[in-house]
Amino acid sequence: MTLIENVHIAPVIGPEIESGYIRIEGDRIAELGPMAQSPGAPGTTRIDATGCLATPGLVNTHHHLYQWATQGLAQDATLFEWLVALYEVWAAMDAEVVKGAASAGLGHLALSGCTTSSDHHYIFPKGRGDLFAAEIEAARELGLRFHPARGSMDRGQSAGGLPPDVVVEELDEILAATAEAVDTYHDPSFSSMLRVAVAPCSPFSVSADLMTEAARLARDKGVRLHTHLAETLDEQEHCLEQFGMRPVDYMDKLGWLGQDVWFAHAVHLSDGDIARFAATGTGSAHCPSSNGRLGAGIARVSEMLRRGANVGLGVDGSASSELTTMAGEMRQALLFQRARYGPKALSARQALELATLGGARNLGRQDELGSLEPGKLADLALWRVDGPFTAAVDDPVCALVFGPQPPLARLLVGGRTVVEDGELRTVAHDATGRAGAEAHRRLMRLAAAR
Ligand SMILES: [Zn+2]
Q1: Is the pLDDT score of 143 beyond 90?
Q2: Stretch 337-353: mean pLDDT, rounded?
Q3: Residues 73 and 29 in one domain
């Protein structure tokens, strides 16, 4: 049993507690309350969290971990220009690159308060090793909860798509590999550390047949569906030209709206699109830093929330949002909404909810994750908000969301310490960053030799 004491608790669901305790039994939260009621049982591991803010662990719902190896390229490009510049480099990646990039990306996420991350891996060049297994191994070593999505592309340039034919796969092999990934790795149990989603890449790189078959496969297997949607106006134009309809209409036609679906970005939505998301329980992953970097636009998040559509956050791949942290995405989301709609558009606590419960809903895990409540998993972050700079901020949740990330005193995943005093504890602290730098060098070498 672990007892965290003297901590300001922002549970996301339920009232905040200024000075409280959290008791953890096994991998679950057993109880929490004000310090006056702390059980203080002998023989317990006690963590004195004086000066800290406890929040649920942050949930990242969109990423491309392999992109750690291609940061800082195509710096001033639109999405389509950026993709065309990078596809050829990504075609050279192998399992070693993916392992190193995933170690660095996930280590970086853990250090910014993230306890659960999804990943969308959609390029599988032939003969380059088991890329999907490589990223899963990185997540297991670090001890983060992981939701890898088996991505895919089957619509190369010769079929009217954006990617070169060298990075796309055949429909049948995609479906077989995706089914195998689910059968091999997906664990649907409560407290699962690993769940697999089905994730064809985007309307401009995937055929209608693959979208339809992927949805059928996911529903047969009882796993979730994910793809990019309505990210840029170029994509909207592509859909109007190629399919005669806007992106959300197209996905609706293919059976892709529902409680088991979450889309990355969803920037360019009409009022009707938002209403359909709300009515069908379709979620989205808001990725403000990436949208800013690529000049994609500002998603209508505060309107979506007001109308009952679920929104979580995503850092997106590091090649379109270099070194973006989960804690930083809360701030970026808040600033984007306020810049667009005014200061009442999104509060600090709503931003925290996007990063926690909103993400848990995207992944179908709102009964296990996303808030600090008895019975939920003990995934939580302790932020040190009494440091020389943050101590002057009147409200600890404001300090976390409005400012730069405060030091991370502790990160627990299922009650297990992954980060302590700002350092990784499950793996050698410096090893993940070094692995990421080596992955970059290796990929650049491999790409130059192609
Ligand atoms: Zn993405």
Answers
A1: yes
A2: 98
A3: no
CA of 264 from ligand 1 middle (Å) equals 6
75 lies in the same domain as 160: yes
Distance of CA 162 from the midpoint of ligand 1 (Å): 15
Query: What pLDDT does 275 receive?
Result: 98
Q: Which residues surround ligand 1, an ion (CB under 5 A)?
A: 264, 316
> What spacing in Å lies between the alpha carbon of 86 and ligand 1's midpoint?
13
Looking at the fold, whether 11 and 35 belong to one and the same domain comes out as: yes
Domain membership flag for residue 110: yes
Ligand 1 centroid–CA 25 distance in Å is: 37
Q: How far apart are CA 327 and CA 324, in angstroms?
A: 9
| Residue 374 alpha carbon to ligand 1 centre in Å | 34
- How many whole angstroms from 355 Cα to the centroid of ligand 1? 17
Q: How many helices (H) and strands (E) does the chain have?
A: 15, 17
- A 10 A CB-CB count for 320 gives 27
Mean pLDDT over 341-368 rounds to 98
Question: Residue 50 maps to which CATH number?
Answer: 2.30.40.10
48 and 67, same domain (yes or no): no
Q: Mean pLDDT across the stretch 375-403?
A: 95
Q: Is the pLDDT of residue 430 over 90?
A: yes
Residue 393 is classified by DSSP as S
217 in the same domain as 144: yes
How many A from CA of 373 to the centre of ligand 1?
Answer: 31
pLDDT the model gives residue 111: 98
pLDDT at 327: 94
At residue 57, the pLDDT reads 98
- Ligand 1: distance of its center to the CA of 317 in Å? 6
Domain end among 317, 343, 362: 362
Task: Give the per-residue pLDDT at 228.
Answer: 98
| Ligand 1 centre distance from Cα of residue 172 (Å) | 24
Residues ≥6 apart with Cβ < 8 Å to 32: 9, 11, 17, 20, 21, 22, 23, 372, 373, 374
436 lies in some domain: no
Q: Which two tokens stand for residue 240?
A: 């109007």
Q: How far is the CA of 290 from the centre of ligand 1 (A)?
A: 8
316 CA from centroid of ligand 1 (Å) = 5
381 and 298 fall within a common domain = no
Which tokens in the block code for residue 52? 């800290």
Q: Is the pLDDT of residue 389 over 90?
A: no
Regarding whether 70 and 128 lie in a shared domain, the answer is yes
Domain that holds residue 385: 2-56+372-423
Residue 207's φ and ψ, nearest 5 degrees, are: -75, 160
The answer on 332 and 199 residing in a single domain is yes
